[in-house]
Amino acid sequence: MISVKELMQPHRIVMMLVFAALVVWCAVSLRWDWIPKYAPLALEGLWATVWILAVSTFLGFLLAVPLGLAQAVGPWYLSIPARTFCTVIRGTPLLLQIWLLYYGLGSLFPQFPWIRSSELWPYLRQAWPYAVLALTLSYAGYEGEVMRGAFSGVAKGQLEAAKSFGMPRFTMFRRIWLPQAIRNVLPTLGGETILQLKATPLVATITVVEIYAVSSRVRADTFIVYEPLLLLALVYMAIAGVIALAFRRFEAGTPQRR
Amino acid sequence: MKLKALLAAATAAAALTAGAAAAEQVKIGIAAEPYPPFSSLDSSGNWVGWEIEVIKAVCAAAELDCVITPVAWDGIIPSLTGQQIDAIMASMSITEERLKTIDFSDAYYNTPAVIVADKSMNIEPTPDSLAGKIVGIQASTIHQAYAQEYFKDAELKVYQTQDEANQDLFAGRIDATQADSIAMADFVNSDNGGCCEIKGAVADDPSILGRGVGAGVRKGDTELLEALNKGIAAILADGTHEKITAGYFTTSIY
Amino acid sequence: MTGLFEILGLGASAELLSLEGWGGNLLRGLANSLQIAFGAFGLGLVIGLFGAYGKLYGGKVTRDLLAIYTTVIRAVPELVLILILYYVGSDIINKISEALGGGRVEINGVAAGIWVLGVVQGAYATEVLRGAIKAVPVGQIEAAKSYGMPTLMIMRRVTIPAMMSFAVPGLANLWLIATKDTALLAVVGFNELTLETRQAASSTRAYFTFFLAAGFLYLMVTLCSGAVFARVEKWARRGQPSLKGGTA
């Protein structure tokens, strides 16, 4: 972290003054009168963004573990599908994946009238399940690749030692292999989560009302171009900052041997 | 060799989209998303439709050298004020709210706003009937403004294009949609639109629904505004407007 | 199997995807996407090279400004950056041109796309190249200096060739990001592959056919670039002892 002393260098003080002047100029000469009216909506949107981010990274990580394991040590009939999945997800734009899931699947519904009377219909007709699904699969695809490296990176000797103690395979996985693999990926996890945060606004294109969608609504209603976008950028920077800090804390809390 | 061919194709494509940079050209912005029957893409990548023909006729009558420039509907007004385009002719209604930001020419068509829903649904185009229903609308349209004002008890789903809203109506994800009557007549007569029917026009509110569709220009660009007004008046007077309309619709839409 | 094809609406795919039909549109979109990706990647490299040198050898102010640039770009979603840069870019250019007494400048879609994505790529390229330059053994650069080589020549003859092998994997990744990020320009209305796909899909209602076809095209680009970059990496590493495990 940057200490106060480091900030107090002459050139940094000048830069901060320039920045402060810029902020004051923005506050005074740009239009912010729309904020009170849209604040409640913006909070809802912010909540949706955070919620979608949390759920999709959590589920995506759960999915990434078997994907990484299958690629690292699985037999061919598991490793090939896992590798194909990761290649396809990483090789195509997320926007296209989201549209394929939402509009592609949507175009099938009318052919199966029973879907509309099923118990799943109230969920299928909403947009967020598709958003969460697409983002989860995307995170799993990228993180699965990372987990593959992490599983291969665990020292062979440790696994052999566990085996020689007669440890059952699942216990060995749970107690030794997985914890060490997770420790290996921890430094990259914060970055990956920020990348995931940056992917969330794409779900606004399938009618999910998250923070980006709210800013679009403000722009559409008021024809103000820059102000909602600038504020939006600031919000994303703040969330990214919180994620970076949280992961640094988390990482510091786990023992590391270099 | 392959790379060369690819580069040639890429350059050709660039020339197509970029257009020559002559100073006299007037860039007419249309929505990049198809809006049949007013504007849509054919399979060879050309824009066709009623409004496209009207644009060409107006430009010819006003002796303007126009280039049709597709812009995302969502950002079409910022594109105009940001000078990426010179005029908007994208079925944009003349409303009080928009007049605060841009100027409009005289109207060149005017149609009511209607509610479309599944045939089996008992829906009326009234706030009471739509309460508790999911209504799909296109972003940045008079329909969004209207629905936000009048259908406060309905759940509103906002789409980037009307086409996506239609698709979701067909899929059953929304109960109803509010849009322009002509575009909807086209939709309910299409394969996918068979599910649905026009339930009727919403109660008019000129302050939100506007006074017809006009060409949007930057405030202060009076020269272009006058030229477009002259062109629109000319095609209305000499029967060109009527002739184009007859090719698409059975009744007049002016 | 045919049943599944019918259900997914893939029955008439061959006809829909023919070159005279929508397939031609998709390929035109792909050409546009690739053109923007090439341009943005190139612009990103130029920005990245200056950025990396600035971060390593620049003054205090340069370094702090570059730190702000890379941090901001990497924390804000590309979609938001694209919108901001798109409007700001054309606004600034027009203001400058008006101030100079010139008329309004025409900005074509491809140039705007390259500018917008290039600025985003530049931030990532700065980090990749900075890491690569740092990985070059200091002794090599010092040796060149002691022979009295001018700075630019050191850069051209020593630093850049020596850092290539370290930079290629990161740059390969950046290129893939560039190709995929062009899809975001669909939201601003550029006629690249994703928007062409959406237009074709909504005009024909064959959503699966076109989304899958576009996915296939993107995947081909990814796989081909992967093969090309593997060869480039081999070339960049020529003469070096084989690297076991990871580098840097």
Give the topology.
The complex is a heterotrimer of chains A (258), B (254) and C (248).
Chain A: H1 4-7, H2 10-29, H3 35-73, H4 76-91, H5 94-106, H6 113-117, H7 121-124, H8 128-152, H9 156-164, H10 169-199, H11 211-222, H12 226-253
Helix pairs in contact in A: 3-4, 3-8, 3-10, 3-11, 4-8, 5-8, 8-10, 9-10, 10-12
Chain B: H1 2-18, E1 26-31, E2 40-41, E3 47-48, H2 50-61, E4 66-71, H3 76-81, E5 87-88, H4 96-99, E6 102-109, E7 113-118, H5 127-130, E8 134-138, H6 142-150, E9 155-159, H7 162-171, E10 176-180, H8 181-188, E11 196-201, H9 206-209, E12 213-218, H10 222-237, H11 240-246
Parallel strand pairs in B: 1-4, 1-5, 8-9, 8-10
Antiparallel strand pairs in B: 2-3, 5-12, 6-12, 7-10, 7-11
Helix pairs in contact in B: 2-10, 2-11
Chain C: H1 2-8, H2 13-16, H3 22-57, H4 60-75, H5 78-99, H6 109-135, H7 138-146, H8 151-181, H9 193-204, H10 207-236
Percent of sequence in beta strands of chain C? under 5%
Helix content of chain B: 25-40%
- How widely separated are the two ends of chain B? 54 Å
- How much strand of chain B? 15-25%
> What overall geometry of chain C do the principal axes of the alpha carbons give?
globular
Alpha-carbon Rg of chain C, integer: 22 Å
How many β-strands of chain C, per DSSP?
A: 0
Low-confidence stretches of chain B: 10-23
Q: How many individual domains of chain B?
A: 2
User: What's the number of helices of chain C?
Assistant: 10
Write down the overall geometry of chain B. Answer: globular
Annotation keywords:
heterotrimer; B: 254 residues; alpha/beta; D-Maltodextrin-Binding Protein, domain 2; 2 domains; 5-stranded mixed β-sheet; 11 helices; 12 strands; C: 248 residues; mainly alpha; 0% strand; globular; disordered C terminus
How is this structure best described in words?
Chain A has 258 residues and is mostly helical. Helices cover 80% and strands 0% of the residues of chain A. Chain A is built from 12 helices and no strands. The two termini of chain A are 21 Å apart. The mean pLDDT of chain A is 90. Chain B has 2 domains: 24-110 and 211-246, D-Maltodextrin-Binding Protein, domain 2, CATH 3.40.190; 113-209, D-Maltodextrin-Binding Protein, domain 2 (3-Layer(aba) Sandwich), CATH 3.40.190.10. Chain B has helices at 2-18, 50-61, 76-81, 96-99, 127-130, 142-150, 162-171, 181-188, 206-209, 222-237, 240-246, and strands spanning 26-31, 40-41, 47-48, 66-71, 87-88, 102-109, 113-118, 134-138, 155-159, 176-180, 196-201, 213-218. Chain B has a 5-stranded mixed sheet with strand order 4-1-5-12-6. A 5-stranded mixed sheet of chain B has the order 9-8-10-7-11, sandwiched between helices. A two-stranded antiparallel ribbon of chain B has the order 2-3. In chain B, β8 (134-138), α6 (142-150) and β9 (155-159) form a beta-alpha-beta unit. Chain C has 248 residues and is mainly α. Residues 244-248 of chain C have low confidence and may be disordered. Chains in contact: A-B, A-C, B-C. The interface between A and C is large, with 41 and 44 residues.
